[in-house]
Structure formats: structure tokens, C-alpha cells
Design brief:
Elements (H helix, E strand, L loop, with lengths): L11 H7 L3 H11 L16 E5 L2 E6 L9 E4 L13 H12 L4 H8 L3 H21 L10 E3 L19 H11 L5 E4 L13 E4 L15 H6 L9 H14 L6 H16 L5
Length: 275
Amino acid sequence: MYDLSALDGFTYRTLLEVTASEDACALWCRRVGLLEGSMACPTCAKYMMLSKTKHGWRWRCQKKPHADRPVEKSIRAGSIFAKSKLPLTTLLRLLYACASHKPAKTVMDEEGVSTDTACNWYNYCRDICSAEMLASEMKIGGEGHVIEIDETSLKKAVVKFTQTDRTKPTLLALIKKHVRLGTLIMSDKFGSYVSTNEVHTLANNRDLQDMSEGLWENQIKQHIKTMRGMVSDLLPSFLDECLWRSWYFPPDASGTTYFKGLVVGIKKKYGHAEL
């Protein structure tokens, strides 16, 4: 779970208010860490001043020895917004739309952006999800929990890590590393899974076919079903998004809660300091 205290009080109404103007949006993004709260001059290491120009807000350093030719940087420098020319207001709404699982086509109609723009920003958000999952311990299960170990039902094997060595020492070591003690494991009773040390309990998946709540069938498969037709290269990021939503948030999380978590993930990846 994330610490979302820095975004307490944020609602969809807040989003509408902060995206009413570029100035309000830039200030809010600096406050929450989507943009740098301060910027050091790359030449003299002194703090730069934020100035409004005809090209928007820019960081400027007019201290000696370069007062005759001020050093400048865009307010977006080093941020997730750095390479985009779209207004910050539009970009922030795109982030919210992705976090709240709004269809890309709907966003295209509402924001007047192209298919490429909408898809690219949704992919950027999934990159954040992937980074968060790679950084997590990702140890699952525990007392009272059921997990399933099986071959992937997808086109290709896409998992957090791949393993071609299916011998008992290798697979048992991976189970101990990634599955908590006391977990009930559903498997096909493949010989290499079976342990005699009773660290975990194994059961044949045919014996547990009615225990559907919380299992792979109803979560990741259902999510992937809605993504049919995707480019195969994007499949890992779609899986990471699904895992991110289920790993860091409660089952009934709102779009606003997901957005808050996305903001936290972006801050962690880009390392911005809040204003």
C-alpha cells in the first residue's frame, strides 16, 4: 500500500480546479512532486528563479559569471512531461484518465488528442506500473491465502521473472523466495513442486476448482480479456498494470485513489522534490 497522505483531500473536483489554467496546474504539479519544486543551475549550482516567459514558465539563473547570458531550463525539465508540447492541463487529465481506467478512445474524444498521443501516455503510465512492480518484494500468499502455480495460458510466458530450469531444487527455492509460509498452493502436482518439508501446502487444482474467489481466473485473466487485440510486445506492461492495481490498492479502490498512487510512482521514478 502507498502512503497517500500528501494527496489527502484530492478529488475529481480538485482535478477540474487545477486544470482550469496552466499556471494553476504547474503550481499544483510542483506542490505534489510531478514537477521540480526547485532547480539548481547546472553552471554555478546556485538555485534558479522561476520566471514566466512568452514560452511558459522557465527556470533562470542570472547570477555571475553568466548574468550576460542567463542559463535557462523549462519547468518541465527532467519530468514525465519533458518531451511533450501539450499543455500541462491536458497531460494531467491524461494521467488521471489512465489511472481511472478510462478507455483511450473516450479520452481522445474528450481531450481532442490523437490515437498515438493517447496510447503513448497510457504506455508511459504502464511503464510506471512496471517500475513499481520491479521495485517491490512481490512475496505473495500467507496463512489463509490460495495461489496457483501453472503454465501461462497466454500466448507467451510473461512473468516477473522467467525460469527454464524446472528441477525440484530450483523451483522449490523460487517458491520459498516468492511465496509466504502457510500458503495453500494450487498446482497440477508436477513432481518438482512437491516438497516434503511442509513449508507450503500443495493441492491439486482439480480439487479446488470451486475456490474461484481471488484466483488468477477472475483477476488477471479478466483484465487481459478486455485488452484483446493488443500488440504482443505490450503484454508485459498490461500485466504489470494489473498486478500494480491489485498489489498496491484495495479491491474497491476508486479512480482517484489509483491516480494518487500513480503520482507517488512518478515521483519515485523521477525523483522530484515537492514544493
